[in-house]
Design goal:
By secondary structure, this protein is of the alpha/beta class. The chain has one domain (7-29, 62-111, 134-332): Ribokinase (UDP-N-acetylmuramoyl-L-alanine:D-glutamate ligase, 3-Layer(aba) Sandwich), CATH 3.40.1190. It has helices at 7-16, 62-71, 86-97, 139-155, 173-185, 212-219, 228-242, 280-293, 298-312, 323-332, and strands at 21-26, 28-41, 48-61, 75-83, 104-108, 115-121, 124-131, 160-164, 190-193, 207-208, 246-250, 256-259, 264-267. The strands form 2 sheets. The chain has a 9-stranded mixed β-sheet with strand order 5-4-1-8-9-10-11-12-13, sandwiched between helices. Helix 1 (7-16) runs antiparallel to helix 10 (323-332) and helix 8 packs antiparallel against helix 9 (298-312). The protein is globular and about 65 Å long.
């Protein structure tokens, strides 16, 4: 049963986040950046020449979810498969610098560690270079990853599981089915941030969080996004068919829509000075998962996740949520049940 809430219980919840273990399964990657200046066109081809003066490597994909979970005070446990290459060495070093455990990460000679390199000239992105393999991990690797995940769940008190799916092949239907069933046995809630490939494979999860574009693509339906009745009907049919408890649909500048047996509510976005929407979905799913682990109400979960997603959009580039800032904004709203 979800607990009632007010400013006091919100503050208590934020303190309780510090005690949670969050297991995150998904595609982890490196977001690499090359910054420079453009002052001429190449004599070899009609393309700009970027004179690079700065390089940076950041954790991306499911690892950005881990950074958000960590920023909220909880303990993230990442589970993934990466390559056995130079990129994997760099990725593991980045995890170590962020004090993130690599105990759930497997290396495979069949894989390439995903690296997305953005070339930025005169503060404008000129080019993105992706190094990756998008095909699914092989059955043997799925079995190995499932074994590691089950072992971590058994040995640690995992409070919630997040499937952070970027369609890069780490999450397979077989893995989903096995871990969702195991989580049910252990009474652990499951949260999904889906992509297209496995959209219909997440039967029986607790909370499903697509954005509106992913929902339309996944359902192969082009309903009117501005019509709340049409949106509600589409979501209702989907969660019944998939046996999902709650759907949380992010609607960009329109806010967030939560749909469960207990509530069907649209929470408008707050007015923001939007700098960059990158990584907002990672923040939303991180905060929603923590709220779910504490059994907060669907409306409070959606409200806090909506606030968090908006806050990170005020920052340039992918950045984790500021816990104290989120708490201050939440308490200022004077939330009541």
């Amino acid at each position: 049963m979800a607990i009632p809430y007010n400013n006091s219980t919100i503050k208590q919840s934020f303190e309780q986040f510090n005690k949670l273990n969050v297991l995150i399964i998904g595609d982890i990657m490196i977001d690499a950046y090359m910054w420079g200046n453009v002052s001429r066109i190449s004599p070899e081809a009609p393309v700009p020449v970027v004179a690079v003066n700065k390089r940076e490597n950041r954790l991306g994909g499911a690892a950005n979810v881990a950074l958000n979970v960590q920023a909220m005070g909880a303990n993230p446990i990442l589970c993934s498969v990466i390559g056995n290459d130079d990129g994997s060495t760099l990725l593991l070093d980045l995890l170590k610098k962020q004090k993130l455990s690599a105990e759930g990460i497997l290396k495979s000679s069949n894989r390439t560690t995903t690296v997305k390199t953005r070339v930025i000239g005169n503060n404008h992105q000129m080019l993105r270079i992706d190094e990756e393999i998008e095909s699914s991990i092989i059955n043997k690797e799925t079995d190995s990853l499932v074994f590691v995940i089950k072992k971590l769940i058994t040995n640690k008190k995992v409070n919630v599981i997040i499937f952070e799916d970027y369609d890069k092949g780490v999450i397979t239907p077989e893995l989903i089915k096995s871990i969702v069933a195991f989580a049910k046995q252990k009474n652990i809630p499951t949260v999904v941030d889906p992509k297209k490939k496995n959209f219909m494979a997440y039967s029986g999860v607790t909370l499903f969080k697509p954005n509106i574009k992913e929902l339309k693509e996944g359902l192969k339906s082009d309903f009117d996004t501005d019509n709340l009745k049409e949106l509600g009907k589409a979501v209702e049919g989907f969660i019944k068919k998939q046996n999902i408890d709650t759907a949380l649909i992010t609607l960009s500048e329109k806010g967030i829509y939560t749909h469960s047996k207990k509530s069907k509510t649209l929470i408008p976005a707050h007015i923001r000075n939007i700098s960059d929407v990158s990584g907002a979905g990672d923040t939303v799913v991180s905060v929603a998962a923590l709220c779910l682990a504490l059994n907060l109400s669907p409306v409070l979960t959606a409200t806090l996740a909506n606030l968090a997603g908006g806050l990170v959009c005020e920052k340039v580039g992918v950045a984790p949520i500021d816990k104290q800032q989120l708490l201050e904004e939440a308490t200022e709203l004077q939330l009541t049940k």
